[in-house]
Design a protein that fits this description.
The chain is of the alpha/beta class. Helix content is 26%, strand content 28%. The strands form three sheets. Strands 3, 4, 5, 6, 7, 14 and 15 form a seven-stranded mixed beta sheet that branches. The protein has a six-stranded parallel beta sheet with strand order 10-9-8-11-12-13, with helices on both faces. Strands 1-2 form a two-stranded antiparallel ribbon.
């Protein structure tokens, strides 16, 4: 397939949300080892906010942002996928090294395409890939959680925080989660969070009033401003995993490990890509959503024409859960 045009969101360089402009572009032509996908929906991620703000490494402009997308295969020259196959794609340089998912079509390496079968609506599916990959990887690779443990999620109303809570409750953990906004408490209790904490920057004592020895596992999604306090909420031989940077701060000035990390507490990190979202994990989660035994925490659904508003809402943390754009 070749020829034709599509609508795509283009970022000419770092700037405010208004720097995201919709333009007509040629539909990309896939080469060997690539897959052309008709994008039906894509989720918004803080990574794209960092790209827009000029905080991401390795980005060249102009660029179509977007580190994930869901849709149907249009053409796979190497025969890896059949036309019409429903797929998700994520990471691998999308939206940074090459054009990403903020468009009606995207062309990506076949190795970062994951097929699935589901009759769920596209906005629901569009909320899942990166959110599920990050939450699943954080809980398994980053924290190695076990049934019966306690988990503290710092940044609980983020899409990854809510997905992690859902996955953790399905595995039988006691979940504590934080939010800065009292109005978002109900969003966390609705997905099964056992203890909601209002975050003033110092929650270690509040966590230990619930779990006196400290939690078994802690998922840090806010970033370096709260990491030290999160570590102090974690028990000896417990694990804290640094995954997110909702604060847009991810470095620790003058880091002195012996003073910073409490005795016996383990600090890990997590980042992943398409290889870290096994097809079976995706398919099982989609089935659970279809069966009503799992939910997808969607905050808001937009159209491509609403991209400026969507980015503004993400930057200002106006909603709880995943923001999704349909094309």
């Amino acid at each position: 397939m070749s020829g034709g045009t599509m609508r795509a969101v283009v970022l000419d360089g770092p700037g405010p949300a208004e720097a995201l402009v919709i333009r007509e572009r040629a539909i990309p032509a896939p080469g060997p080892g690539q897959v052309l996908i008709r994008v039906r929906a894509f989720g918004l991620n803080r990574s794209e906010l960092h790209t827009r703000m000029g905080l991401a490494d390795g980005v060249t402009f102009p660029r179509v942002p977007g580190i994930e997308a869901v849709g149907e295969v249009v053409h796979s020259p190497g025969g890896e996928f059949g036309a019409g196959q429903k797929v998700v794609t994520l990471m691998g340089g999308m939206g940074r090294v090459f054009d990403g998912g903020y468009a009606e079509y995207t062309c990506v390496p076949a190795r970062q395409v994951v097929p699935f079968e589901s009759e769920l609506p596209w906005p629901v599916i569009g909320a899942i890939p990166e959110m599920l990959q990050t939450a699943h990887g954080s809980l398994t690779v980053g924290l190695d959680i076990m049934p019966g443990q306690s988990l503290f999620i710092r940044g609980g109303t983020s899409s990854v925080g809510m997905a992690a809570a859902i996955l953790a409750k399905r595995r039988g953990l006691t979940v504590l989660a934080s939010t800065r906004d009292e109005a978002k408490r109900e969003a966390l209790t609705a997905i099964g969070v056992d203890h909601v904490l209002i975050d003033d920057g110092n929650l270690a004592a509040a966590v230990r009033r619930i779990v006196p020895d400290g939690v078994d596992a802690a998922l840090e999604l806010v970033g370096s401003p709260t990491l030290r306090d999160t570590l102090h909420a974690t028990r000896v031989h417990g694990v804290a995993c640094f995954t997110g940077m909702l604060s847009n701060q991810w470095t620790i000035p003058d880091f002195y490990p012996i003073d910073y990390i409490p005795r016996g507490v383990r600090l890990t990190s997590y980042t992943g890509g398409a290889d870290d979202l096994p097809g079976s994990v995706l398919q099982d989660f989609l089935q659970a959503v279809s069966d009503g035994t799992a939910i997808v925490p969607i905050g808001q659904v937009y159209t491509l024409d609403d991209i400026v508003q969507a980015h503004t809402d993400m930057e200002e943390s106006r909603t709880s859960g995943k923001l999704v754009v349909t094309t």
